[in-house]
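Re-running the complex after MR caught last week's input typo. The corrected sequence lines follow. Everything else is unchanged.
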Amino acid sequence: MKDSKCIEELKKEFDAYAEMYSPEGLDREEQIRMYSIMWLMRKFEEAVKPLWMANKVHGYYHPYITEEAIATAIITQLKKEDYVGSTHRGHGHLIAKGGNINKMMAELFGKEEGYNKGRGGSMHISDMSIGMLGASGIVGAAVAPAVGSALKSWIKGTDDVTVVFFGDGGANAGSVSESMNMAAAWKLPVIFVCENNQWAIATDYARITGEPDLYKRGIGFGIPSCRCDGYNIYQIWETAKAAIERARAGEGPTFIECKTMRMLGHHATDDSWYRDMSVCDKYWEIEPIKRMGEFMVENKIATPAELEAIEAEAMKKVEASIEYADTQCHEPSPDTFYDYIYADGEVIK
Amino acid sequence: MKDSKCIEELKKEFDAYAEMYSPEGLDREEQIRMYSIMWLMRKFEEAVKPLWMANKVHGYYHPYITEEAIATAIITQLKKEDYVGSTHRGHGHLIAKGGNINKMMAELFGKEEGYNKGRGGSMHISDMSIGMLGASGIVGAAVAPAVGSALKSWIKGTDDVTVVFFGDGGANAGSVSESMNMAAAWKLPVIFVCENNQWAIATDYARITGEPDLYKRGIGFGIPSCRCDGYNIYQIWETAKAAIERARAGEGPTFIECKTMRMLGHHATDDSWYRDMSVCDKYWEIEPIKRMGEFMVENKIATPAELEAIEAEAMKKVEASIEYADTQCHEPSPDTFYDYIYADGEVIK
Amino acid sequence: MSIITLRESITQALREEMALDENVFIMGCDVGLRGNPFGITKGLMNEYGEKRVIDTPISEAAFTGLGVGAAIAGMRPLVEILYADWITLPMDNIVNTAAKTCYMFGGQANVPIVIRAPFGVGGGVAAQHSQNNENWFVHVPGLKVITPSTPYDMKGMLKSAIRDNGPVICFEHKRNYSMKGEVPDGEYLVPIGKAAIRKTGTDCTIVAYSYMTYVAEAAAIELEKEGISCEVIDLRSLLPLDYDTVMESIKKTSRVVVVTEAPLRGSIAGEIVGEIIDRGFDLLDAPPQRLGSKNSPVAYNEGLEAMCTPKKEDIIAAVRKTFE
Amino acid sequence: MSIITLRESITQALREEMALDENVFIMGCDVGLRGNPFGITKGLMNEYGEKRVIDTPISEAAFTGLGVGAAIAGMRPLVEILYADWITLPMDNIVNTAAKTCYMFGGQANVPIVIRAPFGVGGGVAAQHSQNNENWFVHVPGLKVITPSTPYDMKGMLKSAIRDNGPVICFEHKRNYSMKGEVPDGEYLVPIGKAAIRKTGTDCTIVAYSYMTYVAEAAAIELEKEGISCEVIDLRSLLPLDYDTVMESIKKTSRVVVVTEAPLRGSIAGEIVGEIIDRGFDLLDAPPQRLGSKNSPVAYNEGLEAMCTPKKEDIIAAVRKTFE
Ligand SMILES: Cc1ncc(C[n+]2csc(CCOP(=O)(O)OP(=O)(O)O)c2C)c(N)n1
Ligand SMILES: Cc1ncc(C[n+]2csc(CCOP(=O)(O)OP(=O)(O)O)c2C)c(N)n1
Ligand SMILES: [Mg+2]
Ligand SMILES: [Mg+2]
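Corrected-run output:
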């Protein structure tokens, strides 16, 4: 399909499509940093699937591919003390918060050196040292706990902010609605980010929702709410900036729906047989890394060579993480079976 | 306080206040019927408190006093096969659906002849023979099951309609939001009625919600939603009529917020010490029975004498129900201890 | 007769009951278009339409609640919770509405709902996809709880559950889905509340259910070689539980080992041992043995995961212990 | 020393811990302005402000979830579920987040939350306000479960629970709230995991907890008159459970009756009997007895309600049975 014709078509079909421009306050260096982070996410995820096939990584693994702009645009604006609540599709969130991909890869390998000492795996990846509150295997269930960290900030009167992610699927969990209501009532410093990729495994969200604009739920609970083009890192960045400022200033929550499209299977081995994937062809033309790269070149923010170097650098880091996890890390010892069930080393058998 | 001055004040303060007029399609006979039903509710509830004090009735008892217009205006428009989902404050709902107050009183007395054979009491009052799906002791928890009866109508393609009630407190239960979403997605024939009396026991709803217009939550989920003056039986009737027609025609759910004010304690012995009850003085001027009566007299729909007779008649029925429950009914026999735990008389000890 | 997997036996039960009774319908995440993650409901939406095989939003609390209400209104819903671990989400409407409505309403309403929940440890899917919570429901009067482990039982018991006029929870072990077995071609039912003897024996009774029945059988085969003859009972139904069969067996063997895959503490194993003592303390020649998983959340790491659950060797050791 | 009610002992524990540690806060329905339905948190909102005693909407699932998350982030929340019956609503975040986060995260995070839940039968409030669901949580590795029954224990154990770095569920029997007892004036702690001997005896051990301890004591007093000397153990903590004290007692008495107010089937009574057998089958001169409520939802009718739970007479009969 031809590039430009395809994008004209897409603009009609993808109601969230927004033209790109470079927002105020976003300098070149930061753009390069964001671009690099997106590549690190992409390369990481691309590497996991073959590792899963090779049985090095097991369990459920949900790639963040083509949603990189969302986590990157939002989370890179946070400080270390700010919190991020994640989903089952959490690798990208962790990377954006500044997590260590070696430890993440080791965790996926189930190794003792992994973030979760091999106990958690992909679905529970977390790094408490940087406020990454952890992914969750129960869709929607991590939202209320994440809002709990905003409750902490509110009680303590700090200016820490929490960003909590959930999908179009997770948005339907009742505790998400309950959490929105409390956040609005008490003006908690939290940003609800709905990563609306329009699918929950094999369920098209249009089949199970009456109002396609998910951000309107936020309005119903009294939360300033809006929608972004999930492929447009600049627009998301600008929207998130305002939301973070509001939250930090004690003005309460914001709901940002980032509309995108799931362009791969739900997890490693899902071939999406239940849907027509050809609709995604168009979307690949605006996938966030390509799109940001093109914008930066067009606007002379970076040269193609620079961008290529960034990609290559990301690849190297990911390869190193695999090497680390595979050869330098260890299986948890059976002696440690009862560790971590209780705090402070207490063992209750 | 003077009547008219007080109402002028109230109009400013009670944002839901709506002038009364007689809507199309509501004939005199039906108005008289509704008025009688309201009195029956009122007399019933007024009778229970002394019975509770006298230890004839025990457990929790939540009077429906001053909310009579809501159940009456809506439920009297339903046919027998239609369903009503109720709350812990359910006596009025049952009466409006055509329930038998003798059986209800017997239930409150804990007698075998009661609706629930003495097993349920006030909080679980139900009459399946008329589609009264039961009150519930867990706030918000009965909403999803009630929507389940609408799911039945949708699956079977009948034109039965479900009306489900919940308070401003119950509205915050996550499963209510989840239910609204499903009702909207599938266009279920259900009407969500939020009886917003502004208090959940001792919690002023303004303290725990960010958006004071609760009906806007319905909009967020894609449900046509609006607000009524909860003291205005005519306005509620007209609003409900349109909603019921839509539901019957397969056009999906409606959300009606009936704004009112809790003018008594939460339950029998609650003296509302935690709030200033003098704000209610004004509201007593527009309490629904008084207001409808005045309107009917003013508009020559009924004479004061007729209205008095209706009140007296209601009183007689309630007295008879007490007499019945107290003297003609029996304690459940200990032999029946294991009955009804399982269906079809099966006993699993 | 044909040989099918347990997975297929479920599909057959659903298909047949849907054909027989138009009040039967299915709801859950991805049960329609995708036919459930394990392929169990595949094809049914095409056969019965989107109103009888309903893809739900991720709203377990309310969609189970809708099912409960539809049952009260006279339907026969089959609600699927994708992993039993998340039965925590609709817990309220299961425990406080489905289980209690018939009672609280003095028999005015029945709640003929079936809740299907894949459970058990396996596959390296970590602590939120690996639980055995069945004893929670055994502890709730008003419910029935079944755990069929063979295709024959699964089909026959699921059909019984669908026809039961009260709420039934069916726990299906994920590791059993591919197990094969014979199933008659025609219609049949297996009643709820009867245990099955998987292997007869004279020296020790092993009481197990679901996946652990297979592990127990393997242990019994090995013990047979050493001359210890075990009787293996597959409970099939945990509530009601067939103590007649259990006690008959113990009369013969005078020894008993109770095995569950649930974490031992607070599990049904204690309950069963307690009942055995009430019913036949004097029959016992040795203290009854309980075996369960270690009291730990389940790890992602496959080595730790494997350490968690009772193994053939553990059962063998427990049986031997009854001879010490 | 002063004599106070159990209700007041809770208030004291909360007040003291809030004063000592500014990370401690309370949330729940009506805990603030109203001071909870039983008056337990009365005054605390005035003392500590609306951010440390938080009136929540009726959103048990999410407000407990918020508490869990705040705990993960370093706070020490006290979440109140008005009636333990509704702990079904936040079940998911208790079981799958609070209990498992420390483990799933490989020790990266602690979850120092306390969940207080009034439980038990009494008052004619019917099936959704009368439950004893504690064994559900005993079955969940990662949790601690306490059931203090005297003002002294309640205050000291609740303070220990608040300082514990993991999740603790505190079940408070509604019928115990007005019980009075001595409490020291100064600060003290009662450790979690130690049982208390309420009455020493030599002939039979009665293991009970919460309200049933009082019923057991009453039974023991009556039995004493007939010359049967019972030792009454109040477990105080169900997870961890102090089997050392239980077994010490059985060594002396050789007989045991285990009493719970929960419906017997699937209750902790079986668990305890199972453990006793594992630890000291040979110590027993008679089969261990279990007593619990009848397996039924609780009725509104007061006569039926009263039939449900174990009475003094039932305990006496069970003790006598150990001498048959
Ligand atoms: C409570 C719950 N229900 C169902 C599932 C099974 N499940 C895992 S991921 C998923 C889809 C989630 O969709 P969405 O929230 O949109 O996130 P996405 O996968 O699209 O990123 C489902 C249904 C689950 N993990 N938890
Ligand atoms: C899940 C749950 N939480 C708390 C309660 C305690 N409770 C009983 S009635 C009530 C207030 C309900 O308020 P609302 O829904 O507005 O109804 P209203 O009483 O005002 O009619 C509360 C909090 C309960 N019964 N169930
Ligand atoms: Mg999605
Ligand atoms: Mg209210």
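None of the earlier attempt is carried over here. The first strand of chain B starts at residue 83 and ends at 85. The radius of gyration of chain B is 20 Å.
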